[in-house]
Write a structure and sequence with these properties.
Helices cover 9% and strands 42% of the residues. It is mainly β. Mean pLDDT is 83; it is low at 45-52 and 114-125.
Length: 252
């Protein structure tokens, strides 16, 4: 009422609904004029639940957009990560309970693992014929490792969060003489990375070393000549955003 800032009052606000509600299974966090809403990937349990599932993240600048009309999550991935880290820390401090899928507890930002019996079918459906498997250090819900090699640039592999390093590994059906690789990252930004190959002799070799890169890149082609059974891209650092690859092609 005095028009002065309250020096001891917290300026963040946590709203947690790990159960069915008017807008089911979400946590929202407000801090310094920003609001992040995280939607848990819980299947439809009735008419209260939106169908299809809402976006995983929504981000709003409440100072400029008090009615939450302009979602900035896609254009501000670094802010999403900062807010998500604070949200998770606050939930942990309060010993919060989380929704579950089967026996898995769903923590914000962590993708549930599919049942083992379903995993091969889900991954092999879009694998190129020369690729045996695609693995990653982590992945965001819906943005699977296989999406980096499915020849669809509207899909992508994305790491689970903004931590580094993160890797994407492609295992080939058989040893192949590779003449190079073209990698398309989602965001044009300064990215530091390495590309390693695993040969028939059972050893890893570094094919590309961009660990000191200072330039902004998005789609890059690197030439080399090596016989490979596996190829691994390790993202060491990104100036903005998370480790995300929309397309990867191995030259023959």
């Amino acid at each position: 009422l005095a028009g002065k800032r309250h020096e001891t009052r917290r300026e963040d606000f946590l709203n947690h609904f790990p159960h069915e509600h008017r807008s089911s299974y979400y946590t929202s966090y407000v801090n310094a004029g920003w609001k992040l809403i995280y939607h848990y990937p819980v299947p439809d349990k009735g008419r209260r639940r939106q169908n299809p599932l809402p976006k995983t993240y929504e981000l709003f600048n409440l100072k400029d957009d008090p009615f939450e009309k302009n979602d900035l999550a896609d254009s501000h991935p670094e802010k999403v990560q900062t807010m998500l880290t604070a949200l998770r820390k606050d939930l942990a401090a309060k010993n919060a309970l989380y929704p579950a899928m089967g026996t898995q507890e769903l923590l914000p930002g962590e993708a549930p693992e599919p049942p083992a019996a379903q995993a091969p079918a889900a991954s092999s459906a879009t694998l190129p014929p020369f690729v045996k498997a695609v693995r990653a250090s982590s992945h965001e819900l819906g943005n699977l490792p296989v999406h980096a090699v499915d020849a669809d640039k509207t899909s992508r592999w994305a790491a689970r969060d903004g931590s580094f390093p993160q890797f994407l590994e492609i295992e080939l059906q058989a040893a192949q003489q590779a003449k190079g690789v073209t990698v398309s990252f989602r965001n044009k930004t300064m990215i530091r990375y390495t590309i390693d190959g695993f040969g028939p002799d059972g050893t890893w070799i570094t094919l590309v070393d961009q660990s000191e890169n200072k330039e902004k890149v998005q789609t890059v082609t690197h030439s080399f000549d090596a016989e490979l059974t596996k190829l691994k891209v390790t993202v060491l650092e990104a100036q903005t955003g998370w480790a995300t690859i929309t397309d990867l092609q191995i030259g023959k």
